[in-house]
Specification:
The chain has four helices and ten strands, in the order E-E-E-H-E-H-E-E-E-E-E-H-E-H. The chain is an alpha+beta fold and about 200 residues long. It has one domain: Ribosomal Protein S5, domain 2. The strands form three sheets. Strands 1-2-4-3 form a four-stranded mixed β-sheet, covered by helices on one side. Belongs to the imidazoleglycerol-phosphate dehydratase family.
Length: about 200
């Protein structure tokens, strides 16, 4: 079973994440940030993995530490659950239309963390979520699961729709990338033999 469970405590946040990559898309999420709860539930549903998240952060300051630390721990869980990545497809690509918005996510569980984030977002709040934290979340996620991640917004106007399209396209790309590649079952999909 490709599962992981990680707990992280700092002076700013407490984060607990339990992940089952081979799940049913079930989510049990409580971060204190309603919009983030919604996005993580979408991530689990569209990625078809099970996710339990508990987080308590210094939201009296803002959502920065909470959202960034969620990205860190979720990334660490994926890295741990995938282990040596033997047999996975490795690459994922998905484009999601969300009403007027269109976003594409391309990713590679390469072992080389990198983020390209070509998305125009207004610096506003959605509930108690600072929209500018979207990029920080995905940077923390990519760097902690050692993923090369490219997120490209083709167009869009509604901030909620754009971010939702990001999370959904990310979920679908992850689902594709972690699928077992029957042609390389038991092998690492790399000419170097290691990721």
């Amino acid at each position: 079973m490709r599962q992981a469970e990680i707990e992280r405590q700092t002076k700013e946040t407490y984060v607990y994440v339990s992940l089952n990559i081979d799940g049913k898309g079930e989510a049990d999420v409580d971060t204190g940030v309603g919009f983030m709860d919604h996005m993580l539930e979408l991530l689990a549903f569209h990625g078809n993995f099970d996710l339990k998240v508990r987080c308590k952060g210094d939201l009296q300051v803002d959502s920065h530490h909470t959202v960034e630390d969620l990205g860190i721990v979720l990334g660490q869980c994926f890295n741990k659950a995938l282990g040596d990545k033997r047999g996975i497809t490795r690459y994922g690509h998905f484009t999601i239309p969300m009403d007027e918005a269109l976003v594409t996510t391309d990713l590679d569980f390469s072992g080389r963390p990198y983020l390209v984030f070509n998305v125009e977002l207004d610096n506003i709040h959605l509930g108690n979520y600072e929209v500018e934290m979207t990029e920080e979340f995905f940077r923390a996620f990519a760097y902690n699961c050692f993923m090369t991640l490219h997120i490209n917004e083709h167009y869009g106007k509604n901030t909620h729709h754009i971010i939702e399209a990001i999370f959904k396209s990310m979920a679908r790309a992850i689902k594709e990338a972690v699928t077992i590649d029957e042609a390389h079952k038991g092998q690492v999909v790399s000419s170097k033999g290691v990721l």
